[in-house]
Amino acid sequence: MADRLEAISRQVASRWTKRGVATLKFMAAPVHGCYYLSTEMFYVEINIDGSTGRVAEAKVHHIDTTQANHQTTTNCPEIIECLTKGDFNRFVDHLEGLMSIYDMKNASPQDKSRGWSALSILEADLGKIYSTYKQFINSDVGSLIDSSPLGLVQPRAGGIPMRLTFFLPTYDLISPSAKALLPPSADKIMDEGLGLSVTVGIERSEKPQSLPVHSLVTLDKDGSPYEVPLSANNSATLPARYVLHLSSAMPLELNKCQDIIAVTGIPFVEEDVEGSPLLHLITNPNSTAKASSSRGLFVVVSSCMKTL
Fold first, then answer.
1. Which terminus of the chain, N or C, has fewer Cβ atoms within 10 Å?
2. Are 8 and 73 contained in the same domain?
3. Taking the model in full, what pTM does it have?
């Protein structure tokens, strides 16, 4: 296990060093069964039981460089699970996710710490909103995805970012073996990545942005959440911004892109980008031929659909 952990640390470090992110290092204290994969901003601690060789404990430590000798520590059973199963690709996902949090080239360690803090605050606020709406919406997962403002929320687990599933197509619920439509299950959706979703993250920004240093969501006397406006008293200016990563490409009208830019102030579309007809963007990913106004569309129907 120790050799595998060291090899993984080198593998991940080689990719991120080229991007100017702090090198991931491997350190071992085999006498105590402790192994560490660390950067200047965080380290992952793996404890292995010497008698059984099993992973006994896994923790993620985020170093707060704004305060002397301060860090936040989180137990991560998900890392224990993937290492125990030998799912090292999943462990790499955890490390890649942690590295991406601090992917702010030329930013100071203090700003990187504040960036992680701002992301943690956002995740906690989203979790607070989600928990509140779960109390008022039918426990059915489908209703939760359709009716709540955040859909189905999967909290952060180690380096795996928070995920919001906002749409679940019927196609994803078809069971080829049962030849039936299965009821939606939160565990199945999360484990298999079903539906359309976004992950919540933070990234470097050329233009400094105001990000919160305290929670912006509070509950009124009825238990309903409301947002506290961002101000100089509850925010800090950082070379970073929040970002939502789509699980798959989404067709979007150019005027809608401009609306988003007007609201966020963040230009995420090239000015000289050339658009395509919306119908083409929707159909081409699932078609064996390009959409055309002069002929029909060609789509691949899977075997499970043919048997229904």
1. C
2. yes
3. 0.86
Residues in Cβ contact with 122 at an 8 Å cutoff, skipping those fewer than 6 apart: 200, 212, 242
Closest of 11, 61, 56 to residue 40, by C-alpha: 61
Cα 269 to the chain's mean position, in Å? 21
User: Does residue 305 carry a pLDDT above 50?
Assistant: no
Helical axes 2-17 vs 88-101, angle rounded to 10°: 40
* Residue-range definition of the domain harbouring residue 143: 109-248
Task: Write down which residue in 85, 101, 117 finishes a domain.
Answer: 101
Between CA 20 and CA 107 the distance in angstroms is 11
**pLDDT by residue (tens digit) across 124-140?**
999 999 988 888 776 67
